[in-house]
Amino acid sequence: MTLRRLLPPRPGATLRLAAVALALAAGLTAAGGASAQQSTLDQIKQRGVLRCGVNTGLAGFSTPDSQGRWTGLDVDVCKAIAAAALGDAGKVHYAPLSAQQRLTALQSGEVDILSRNTTWSLSRDTQGMNFGPVVYYDGQGFMVPKALGVTSAKQLDGATVCVQTGTTTELNLADYFAANRMSFKPVVIESFDEVVAAFFSGRCDVFTTDGSQLASVRAVSAAAPDDYVILPEIISKEPLAPVVRHGDDQWFDIVKWTVYALLEAEEKGITAANVDEKKKSADPTVQRLLGVQPGMGQSLGLDDAWAYRAIKAVGNYGEVFERNVGKATPLRLERGLNALWTNGGLMYAPPVR
């Protein structure tokens, strides 16, 4: 058997192979970089749908019906953004997320936006997230059975309190009782639905969460809503706002200004019903907002009809509020801090110019 002699490579072959390998590596790196650098808006357009993280079910804010159709204040925010960015309020995939899942789902890219009654806080804002404008100014409160005979949170010393873990609610509860030199026995449960069930089954004297959630739970989950009282004390500031990831200022701007557009529309008397007529307005702000005067859309990377579509889809902020959580709904919530600044509230949009 004859062994073939191994010949040395031809002159220049090694260099050519190395060059090909480098070119291939550079090409793969460039392709990966281009994918990684694709903007959120481009990804959404390419996908054809906005992925919106919402509550698993909170009346007035985000709930699905028997057909899987979602409604609520937070849902309307998603619809408005989809209308502005994609031209169609129906192009939304709703991802129901628990309190424990929500922030991870946003940071991992599972959703494009979190519109899920999430409190804006320093620690969250500095850990890879940007909070848009507040869509509901809330505060933590307490609900008790009327039969308990309690009229103030200052009377809750020694009470058993149901609270959901993984929320700012749990921390606020401890702070409030410590500050008022009272003791309490916590019943800490991970699932919100299980917390609610525990309260109505009598496992605890008190249920604590955001005031809007207390109103929602009482209206929907209580067999006899009038048998339960929401105490007057508000023990925390809970500004609820949509959330996006750090690192994409364009997408952050689109989310911010879509919410601001709904606020500005209310201030200017623009509704879903009259938005077409309002395009004839001589008011320069209205003209800029509705795209009659061009330029605002280009600043966001959208066309000039972005705000018109959002308002046409869901109405102004006042319409969104009243339709979902207002006095004519089971929640019966007053505007309060969520009124426009011109009516004594905190809702205020920067100039559209």
UniProtKB/TrEMBL annotation:
Swiss-Prot/TrEMBL keywords: Signal, Transport
Pfam families in the record: SBP_bac_3 (PF00497)
Top-level taxon of origin: Bacteria
CDD domains: PBP2_BztA
Cleaved signal peptide residues: 1-36
Gene Ontology biological process terms in this record: amino acid transport
Domain (Solute-binding protein family 3/N-terminal): residue spans on this chain: 49-278
Entry's family note: Belongs to the bacterial solute-binding protein 3 family.
Name used for this protein in its record: General L-amino acid-binding periplasmic protein AapJ
Organism: Rhodospirillum centenum (strain ATCC 51521 / SW)
Phylogenetic placement of the source organism: Bacteria, Pseudomonadati, Pseudomonadota, Alphaproteobacteria, Rhodospirillales
